[in-house]
Amino acid sequence: MLDALTVAVAVTALALAAWCGFAAYRDQPTKDWHFIGMAVVSLLALAQMVVGIVQLSRGERPEQGMTIFIAYLIAAFLAVPAAGFLSLTERTRWGSVTVAAGAVVLAVLEVRLYDIWGS
Q1: How far apart are CA 69 and CA 117, in angstroms?
Q2: What would the mean pLDDT of 44-56 be, rounded to a whole number?
Q3: pLDDT digit string (tens) for 17-29?
Q4: What does pTM read for this prediction?
Q5: Beta strand segments in the chain, E
Q6: Closest CA to 98 of 116, 113, 86
Q7: DSSP characters for 33-51?
Q8: Within 13 Å, how many C-alpha atoms sit on residue 22's CB side?
């Protein structure tokens, strides 16, 4: 895995979590700007998934097993879009809380992906 990309995904996810957490603190639902932030984080997670798949196809293997690595890659890619979709159904401050929680989950998944790969 690319260490810089892993750090970039985790840091942007935590920034999104802070942003949406602040919106929840101010009693605001997710707004269009939040969805743009979610798109940026999701694109970075997609790039990481592509890099991971390319590395696997070149014969590189994670230290802790390929199946668990692929499962974490998919979960990392889907964490923020799933939270964003749920925030659309909850148009209160709790929608912002949901996105903040999903972004924190993504950051934790990034740390775990780094550990699984064995970098």
Answers
A1: 7
A2: 94
A3: 999 999 999 999 9
A4: 0.91
A5: none
A6: 86
A7: HHHHHHHHHHHHHHHHHHH
A8: 6
